[in-house]
Amino acid sequence: QDKTQTRSELETGVLPVGSVTRSGEDPENKVTSIWVLQFNGTVATSTLVHKAEATLSPDVTEATYTISKTTNQHTYYLLANVYDSLLPALNTRLDNFQGGFLSMESNNLSKGIPMIGTWPGAATAGAAPEEGVKLERLMAKIEVNITGRFSGLNIQSVQLRDIPKKMFIQQPPTTGTTVATTDEDRYNILTPLEPYSQNGDSYIFYIPENIRGQANKIISGAYEKAYQNAPYFSTYIQIEGTYTKNGVEQADVVYELYTG
């Protein structure tokens, strides 16, 4: 079986604007750095005027960063565990940033799971404001638990296939919309994804959300949840293994399970 969680179900604690507090060494809460993006207003045409980074080393639990002083309402985005090469350029419009993506060509999570938070406010002189910013993971969690294994089945690998390589800045649509079938550039189709962590027959993956719409062709039965009925580029679990009997290998097998 598998359990899929969207990023809205994986929120972290509150971080104060002006400083960054680490929330533990749990992989889901790991924070190694936070970038602050400052837009010079709250309307769509506001532009990015300042970027600053706070980096947390293993022995530091709090770090400060600078933002441009203003008496007007600005829009601040906090991006945690994101490489600077993925950040928007100065003068990027707020609506273009909010409607865009962050690319992940390799799904490298060594810095931690990418997270995002936002705060509209005025950064006046003096002490940092105490308003909190809640960080939200930009990825979905897929947990695969293999139970009731057939006797003689030796599992060699558990991977995900058809992984998005771009993360939505804002929440993607969840109902009533089928994502276009021609956006192949958003997907790293040829490279399988190894588990982020493994404990026995339990595997955990983190991937950018992949909401492909509904497969209305499925009538009944799990056997119909296969590639021929799935929307294009739907993420699926691929389990490879061999069957043995009396210590002799009998057959190689591949199972493909669609998380929807």
Explain this structure:
There is one protein chain. This protein has 260 residues and is an all-beta fold. The chain is 2% helix and 42% strand. The chain is built from 1 helix and 19 strands. The chain has a 6-stranded antiparallel sheet with strand order 2-10-9-7-4-5, with no helix packed on it. A 4-stranded antiparallel sheet has the order 1-11-17-16, with no helix packed on it. Strands 12-18-19 form a 3-stranded antiparallel sheet, with no helix packed on it. A hairpin with an 8-residue loop joins strand 4 and strand 5.
Which term fits the overall shape? Answer: elongated
Task: Average the pLDDT over all residues and give the rounded result.
Answer: 74
Order of helices and strands: EEEEEEEHEEEEEEEEEEEE
Radius of gyration: 21 Å
Strand order of the largest sheet: 2-10-9-7-4-5
Distance between the termini: 11 Å
- Major sheet attributes: 6 strands, antiparallel
* Structural class by sheet pairing and helices: mainly beta
Number of helices: 1
Per DSSP E runs of 2 or more residues, the count of β-strands stands at: 19
Task: Note the beta-strand portion.
Answer: 35-45%
Which stretches are low in confidence, meaning pLDDT under 50 for 5 or more residues running?
1-17
Helical proportion? Answer: under 10%
Write the layout of secondary structure elements.
Layout: E1 2-5, E2 11-16, E3 19-21, E4 33-39, E5 48-55, E6 62-64, E7 74-80, H1 94-98, E8 101-103, E9 115-121, E10 132-137, E11 139-145, E12 153-161, E13 163-164, E14 166-168, E15 187-188, E16 197-199, E17 202-208, E18 236-245, E19 248-258
